[in-house]
UniProtKB/TrEMBL annotation:
<feature type="transmembrane region" description="Helical">
    <location>
        <begin position="264"/>
        <end position="287"/>
    </location>
</feature>
<dbReference type="InterPro" id="IPR051605">
    <property type="entry name" value="CstA"/>
</dbReference>
<comment type="similarity">
    <text>Belongs to the peptide transporter carbon starvation (CstA) (TC 2.A.114) family.</text>
</comment>
<protein>
    <submittedName>
        <fullName>Carbon starvation protein CstA</fullName>
    </submittedName>
</protein>
<keyword id="KW-0472">Membrane</keyword>
<feature type="domain" description="CstA N-terminal">
    <location>
        <begin position="303"/>
        <end position="426"/>
    </location>
</feature>
<dbReference type="Pfam" id="PF02554">
    <property type="entry name" value="CstA"/>
</dbReference>
<feature type="domain" description="CstA N-terminal">
    <location>
        <begin position="4"/>
        <end position="167"/>
    </location>
</feature>
<feature type="transmembrane region" description="Helical">
    <location>
        <begin position="186"/>
        <end position="207"/>
    </location>
</feature>
<feature type="transmembrane region" description="Helical">
    <location>
        <begin position="411"/>
        <end position="430"/>
    </location>
</feature>
<feature type="transmembrane region" description="Helical">
    <location>
        <begin position="158"/>
        <end position="179"/>
    </location>
</feature>
<feature type="transmembrane region" description="Helical">
    <location>
        <begin position="126"/>
        <end position="152"/>
    </location>
</feature>
<dbReference type="GO" id="GO:0005886">
    <property type="term" value="C:plasma membrane"/>
</dbReference>
<dbReference type="InterPro" id="IPR003706">
    <property type="entry name" value="CstA_N"/>
</dbReference>
<feature type="transmembrane region" description="Helical">
    <location>
        <begin position="75"/>
        <end position="98"/>
    </location>
</feature>
<feature type="transmembrane region" description="Helical">
    <location>
        <begin position="227"/>
        <end position="243"/>
    </location>
</feature>
<keyword id="KW-0812">Transmembrane</keyword>
Length: 483
């Protein structure tokens, strides 16, 4: 219990200390107009309040990641707490804050545009492909998981296919309609259910004295399971997730003032980390050890664990509400995944999105592809999603490092976590069955050498960009066109 509580406290302290430090390094300009006002179009660029933006951001980035990931990561033992806390404070929240704020400085641009500007034009095409792939995988996965949970919750009374069709219909509406019509109106209520259900489970663990394992040298992780690099691809949301880099530009286009950025971007990542801690603790403590958790996962997957934990901690009624809160998570990330994909394609092709028809012809093919992807095995989809997710996080962190390097500011806050994850991303794909299947020792050597080469190339490009005075932000007077 002490390890769990200490982790929660450290996350909160991290927001008020390291979060403030990162904000100071970046340098907020309160007087600078934001894209929400300068490019207001009534569709994607719409000023909204900080509480509303914060809840929307939390739901956008959360998905099932901070629930399902920590539940599966709980099999590694208390070491999962370390990754969630350290990863969230020093990697994930930095990643989210920098991508959000740099986007605000550049007309609400998405990651492919930012990568093109700060890492080279070739990267624009690479990151576009990565981002669209990632978002399609997210959208597809987040159709399947909530549909399965709802199917179980309703005791199979409604056919799974019908539930999937209804979710797809909602996604289409949320993707095409102005951001304040569905997302802006419903998300605050969804956010309340999410927060209340997570807090309910967390308080239940404390009040009931759940036997949450403590971190020690003898209990670092069970059965000597290999931690590196698998832990970093099992627990992503709640620690570090590239998917967030595709979501922050949605809110960078609705943020009223740069001073709100730390609450919206850094703060909501910390909130997601707390949610991840709660579910990891619940999974570790409520199933008679790791073998019991493993059996539960084998029998019903993370969804079965969510249902069992919710009922144990909150009773039948409260448990049902908590499960609904978890159902909300993937739905409120799936809809913005498709919305982000639509916006990224429009930005790539330079197509204004004010007309409904312009949004429609971009969105429909995305949904058609997603329907096909739903026929692929979920576990295979999730493995590719995990790797693409962390590869995208690396790109976003290097964009942040380049921005800070050119600005002659402390770029290490982004480059260190970016380089660490770069090693993990290369090592994983070299070793994994979905990649090259090389022996782990060879994969590690390849990961370190590959990361070293890419970091050297980064510094060469950064020095040239600084020497050429690459503009860090767009002139507001030029923001007279709508993306």
């Amino acid at each position: 219990m002490y390890t769990f509580l200490a982790g929660i406290i450290l996350l909160i302290i991290g927001y008020f200390t390291y979060g403030k430090f990162v904000e100071k390094v970046f340098g907020v300009k309160e007087e600078r107009a934001t894209p929400a006002y300068v490019n207001s179009d009534g569709v994607d660029y719409v000023p909204m309040s900080t509480p509303k933006n914060s809840l929307i951001q939390l739901l956008n980035i959360a998905g099932t990641g901070p629930v399902f990931g920590p539940i599966m990561g709980a099999l590694y033992g208390p070491v999962a707490f370390i990754w969630i806390v350290i990863g969230c404070i020093f990697a994930g929240a930095v990643h989210d804050y920098l991508t959000g704020m740099i986007s605000i400085r550049n007309r609400g641009a998405h990651l492919p545009e930012l990568a093109s500007k700060f890492l080279g034009k070739v990267m624009k095409h690479v990151v576009n492909a990565f981002a669209i792939l990632l978002l399609l995988l997210v959208g597809t996965v987040f159709v399947s998981t909530p549909a399965s949970l709802l199917h179980v919750l309703m005791d199979g009374q409604i056919a799974l296919g019908i539930i999937i069709a209804v979710i797809f219909l909602y996604y289409i509406l949320a993707t095409l309609l102005p951001v304040d019509k569905i997302i802006g109106r419903l998300y605050p209520y969804f956010g309340a259910v999410l927060v209340i259900s997570a807090l309910g489970v967390g308080i239940g663990l404390i009040v009931n004295g759940a036997p949450i394992p403590e971190l020690s040298l003898s209990n670092f992780h069970p059965d000597n399971a290999p931690i590196l690099p698998l832990l970093f691809f099992t627990i992503t949301c709640g620690a570090l997730s590239g998917f967030h880099a595709t979501q922050t530009p949605i809110i960078s286009r609705t943020t009223q003032n740069e001073k709100q950025g730390r609450k919206i971007f850094y703060g909501m990542m910390i909130a997601e980390g707390i949610i991840a801690m709660i579910w990891a603790a619940a999974a570790m403590s409520l199933f008679d050890g790791y073998s019991g958790l493993g059996e539960m996962l084998a029998a019903g997957g993370p969804g079965a664990v969510v249902s069992e934990v919710s009922v144990l901690m909150l009773g039948a009624v409260g448990g049902t509400i908590a499960v609904l809160g978890v159902v909300v998570l993937p739905i409120t990330s799936g809809d913005t995944a498709f919305r982000s994909a639509r916006m990224i394609i429009a930005e790539y092709l330079n197509i204004a999105q004010k007309k409904f028809s312009s949004r429609l012809w971009i969105a429909l093919p995305l949904f058609a592809i997603s329907v096909v992807l739903t026929q692929i095995d979920f576990n295979l989809l999730w493995r590719y999603f995990s790797w693409a997710n962390q590869a995208t996080a690396v790109i976003a962190l290097f964009v942040g490092a380049m921005y800070l390097y050119i600005a002659k500011k402390n770029y290490w806050i982004s480059l260190i976590p970016g380089t660490f994850m770069l090693v993990m991303v290369i090592t994983y794909i070299l070793n994994a069955p979905i990649g090259f299947g090389l022996p782990m020792n060879i994969a590690w050597i390849g990961g370190i050498i590959g990361a070293t080469i890419l970091v050297v190339l980064f510094f060469n490009a950064a020095k040239k960009a600084r020497a050429n005075n690459l503009p860090l932000e767009e002139d507001i007077s030029d923001w007279n066109r709508v993306a």
